[in-house]
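Researcher: Structure prediction, please.
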Amino acid sequence: MRGIETNLAFHRRCLRHPEFIAGEFDTGFIGRNAEALAPTADAHELEAAIIAVALAHGTVSPATASAAHVPHGALTNGHTAEISGWRRQLR
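Model: Predicted structure follows.
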């Protein structure tokens, strides 16, 4: 279970963006700044996600238990660690 998902982190990124702080925003603000507003994961979060997917698919081995042994962006069973198209579009 992941719990309740919210868009609070997205709104925090918007409110902290230099253009927003300067009052330079309009209806195109999100589209123009989509890359800067997109969610990111640090190395620890990415490693935890890789291990969680491996556990969920029952394919944990010493090689998949460590992010150092998994090719960048690759997980098990053909899944990847890339952010989904919905997340990239901030939906």
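Model: The chain has six helices and no strands.
Researcher: Thanks, that helps.
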